[in-house]
Amino acid sequence: MRLFHDKLDLEEDNNKEGGEIAERKGCRFLHDEAELEARLARLEADTRKCENELSALRQAAEAGDMDAQMQLAGYYHRDNNFKQALVYYGLAAEKDNKNAIRMMAELYRKCKRLDEAEQCYRRLEAVSGKAMDLELGKLLLEKGDKPQAVEYLRKAAKAGKKEAAQLLEKLDYVPDVSQLERMALMNGCKDAALELGEYYYEKVPRLSAFWYHFAYTHNHVRPLDQECINKVFGKSHYCEEEVRRLDEGSFSIFKRSGTRRAREIRAEIESKEQFAESDNDPSLLVELGDLYESLGEYESALQRYFMAMDGGSGDVDVRIAVAYMRAGDLSNGMHWLQKAADRNDLNAYNYLARTYEEMNDRENQLKCCLRLSELGNRLVDVRIAELYEAKMEFSKALFYYKRYWEHEIGQPGKDVRMENKIHRLERMCPSGHDAIDQLEKVFNTYRKQAKIAAIKLGTCYYEGTDIEPDYQKSAFWYRQAGTK
Q1: Is the confidence at residue 276, as pLDDT, over 90?
Q2: Would you give the distance in Å from CA 433 to the centre of its chain?
Q3: What is d(CA 340, CA 347) in angstroms, rounded to the nearest whole number?
Q4: For 70-111, what is each residue's pLDDT tens digit?
Q5: Taking a C-beta distance cutoff of 8 angstroms, is the pair 480, 199 a contact?
Q6: Does residue 72 sit in helix, strand or coil?
Q7: Which helix (H) or strand (E) holds 260?
Q8: Would you state the pLDDT for residue 277?
Q9: What is the CATH number of domain 222-359?
Q10: 199 near 175, Cβ under 8 Å?
Q11: Which of the 8 DSSP states describes residue 221?
């Protein structure tokens, strides 16, 4: 009996305990449900807040806010909504945002839209001024254009990109030497010569040095185009073609003033022509030539200038040269400039110096500047110094900088920038150091000048300047220039 009562007591205790557990579970369920509802409410609030923020960002982006455009593009990019990401990256890219253009290139590449990716990388090159050779090389490999890809990867490898060098090793690239030689010798292609220098570096140091030397010292003179000519010689203000375009365009103050001024010049020409026919006055003929030239009628201008010369005017050479140059006759233009320069015409030398600068012909530019300095133009000394500095001839550059400072500045503190440049050059070429030591010091010390110093060192070892010729060292230093 006692055992029976003990069993009942145990069951009663178990029932009580079970009820307490159930009650606790029920409370916990109610608590969890309330917490879930609170979480859902917070999530809905966060969603509404996010939607409001997105709406505000869209409005700002459409209004032209570049930060908003980039934030939206990044949001859609992370959400794998590439279509919308490209839309907003594109809006920012219109303002030449480099990061936006880069992200567009990567997205296009990810989506296998390789032509658009290539366009973005090339645009990024133009906007940033930095080569995208590695990226373009990898992209062209994806497109299956192996020869073009190799060309870009070679450039990237020369610039020190290890990934490019590794890719080239995997491709087992062997250049077409004969084709590269033709490109270098016949077309003056610097990249082809550099590639040949790299190809022969381990194989034949003498040939490597030769091609590097050709690449860095061959005078790559640019042909003059009309834009260069206008930059040096100016252009006519009221040529007939320009007046015609103005007449066809919308009315404006510029149109009315331009055409009116052209008509005034035409009337002045008609008036002077009457006197010129009877008087045959050289000075009047020169004035007529100037008027015709201002209208862009170069043939008529040249006729008047030559008539003035036949009449005894001896200072029209430069005017004849300028008329020829503006008319696009470069050969005759340079001939008459040189003719004027031969009789020490300062204006002719100025034009020649500026023309050679536009042609990238630094040697002839330097000769003209030196002649101007001999003729008493001290203002040109600073340009001479800059040209010598570019050639790494620091002692000569220092001489002309100092001479310019003494004649044109003279007082300490008046031109701090010039004084700092002189002090820097004095440190770069201390007395008692030969050219090789100076250049090695520049290479190791002055980051901005390191490439030029390496080229100059390669040239010294190749040509045997101040040292015995050493083709292996020449090739080494030329190669260093490509890594700086």
Answers
A1: no
A2: 36
A3: 9
A4: 888 888 888 888 888 888 898 888 888 889 899 998 888 888
A5: no
A6: helix
A7: helix 253-279
A8: 64
A9: 1.25.40.10
A10: yes
A11: P
